[in-house]
């Protein structure tokens, strides 16, 4: 965790696993913004938070956030914890599987595999388990998207693109998802040069066919390239579903989405929403790629 300079003071980016933050952690962010900055907190389009206008005690701010459990397990890994999930992962009625366990495995690999710390801070992954509330348009270096074929759920994947516009290169069983991601990242680092900071840079010199052949040889994954997979297109979603009441797979519970004006909150606003989540929900908030907030597990 670090603070980068800006015209209005320092910016501290707070990366949230799966976009999830507890009420207590959100209150800690609000208090840190009041104490060490000008009280401005932004929701980002990567489903994270950032504190702006930081002046003075940088170490105090970072210490307060780390004490709240908002830092990385490995200090060298903070820049590469770039995995985007649906804000309704594990909750969405249309999900084909619960993405959270696989996401935790991928994040653990990013944090604890020292070589992955060489990846650019902009190198990003996405995991879509078939939820109806998901950002499909953001380009990612590696994207993963669930599809159902002959009653089997598979994990389709593509490189340097997004499931909204691109078709998969191949698919693997969901159980091999972590192995696939680790193999793809190692392959990128092995084949790339220092100036290849993004997957698109490598693909300008190495064909996807060569990448797939090398992946199949190295990974041990069951890499499938059936025509039904490579012709598959992720269905589009309705663009405004992140605002309002959203049904959950869990009976008698809903998620409630709220817009954040221009993606900016003040400390009082974040504290109030955190208290609302503690009182009316399960004590967590979820950030979304639309720079909004979601309160999950609200009883009805």
Q: Keywords, please?
A:
300 residues; alpha+beta; Sulfite Reductase Hemoprotein, domain 2; Sulfite Reductase Hemoprotein, domain 1; 2 domains; 5-stranded antiparallel beta sheet; 8 helices; 15 strands; 29% helix; 25% strand; metal-binding; 4Fe-4S; NO2/SO3_Rdtase_4Fe4S_sf; iron; oxidoreductase
Can you describe this structure?
29% of the residues lie in helices and 25% in strands. It is of the alpha+beta class. It folds into two domains: 124 residues, Sulfite Reductase Hemoprotein, domain 2, CATH 3.90.480; 129 residues, 2-Layer Sandwich (Sulfite Reductase Hemoprotein, domain 1). It starts with a strand and ends with a strand. It is built from eight helices and 15 strands. Strands 1-2-5-4-13 form a five-stranded antiparallel β-sheet. It has a five-stranded antiparallel β-sheet with strand order 3-14-15-12-11. A five-stranded mixed β-sheet has the order 6-7-8-9-10. Strand 1 and strand 2 form a beta hairpin. Helix 1 runs antiparallel to helix 8. The longest helix has 15 residues. The mean pLDDT is 95. One of its GO terms (molecular function) is oxidoreductase activity. Pfam families: NIR_SIR, NIR_SIR_ferr. Keywords: 4Fe-4S, Heme, Iron, Iron-sulfur, Metal-binding, Oxidoreductase. InterPro entries: Cbl_synth_CobG-like, NIR_SIR_4Fe-4S, NiRdtase/SiRdtase_haem-b_fer, Nit/Sulf_reduc_fer-like_dom_sf, NO2/SO3_Rdtase_4Fe4S_dom, NO2/SO3_Rdtase_4Fe4S_sf. This is Ferredoxin--nitrite reductase.
